[in-house]
Amino acid sequence: VIFLKKFITVLAIVSNTKVAMNCSTWMSPVLKSIGGNLVSNPIMNIARNLSYKIKTKKAAAKRFKVLPGGKIKRQQAGNQHLSAGTPGHVVNARAKGTYVHTSDNIRVLRVLGRY
Question: For residues 45 and 10, is the Cβ–Cβ distance under 8 A?
Fold first, then answer.
């Protein structure tokens, strides 16, 4: 049983998400029949085998918000003070906030405890 679970976890790490989900779909009845279970998300399979919990960085949780579409919203810098000489449309644009660049998504999700 332990070997089979570790094999599935290694398979989830090595393969991409779609293959890992397909693997968990057809292996789930087998694992349930022998007393185990498998989550369809390979990242959660890795997290379940760790000896510690993945905790959220609270400072990051206050600064970022993950939207339902997968984008991550953040506030723009430079809107706290010293904006007297800045044009109004620039100050208003900064107040709206913006999205995290896609190349930084994994890094932000990691500190939010999602990976």
Answer: no
Q: Which residue type does 38 have?
A: L
Residues contacting residue 5 through CB under 8 Å, at least 6 positions apart: 31, 36, 38, 49
Structure-block tokens of residue 74: 């953040």
* C-alpha distances out from residue 90 to 63, 76, 80, 99, Å: 21, 11, 13, 17
pLDDT per residue as tens digits for the range 2-48: 555 555 555 555 454 444 444 445 555 544 444 455 555 565 566 56
Give the long-range contacts of residues 18-21, CB within 8 A, separation 24 or more: 20/45
Greatest Cα-to-Cα distance within the chain, rounded to the nearest angstrom: 69
What's the Rg (C-alpha) of the chain?
21
Question: Which tokens belong to 14?
Answer: 């090595």
The residues that bridge with 73 in the sheet, in sequence order, are 65, 99
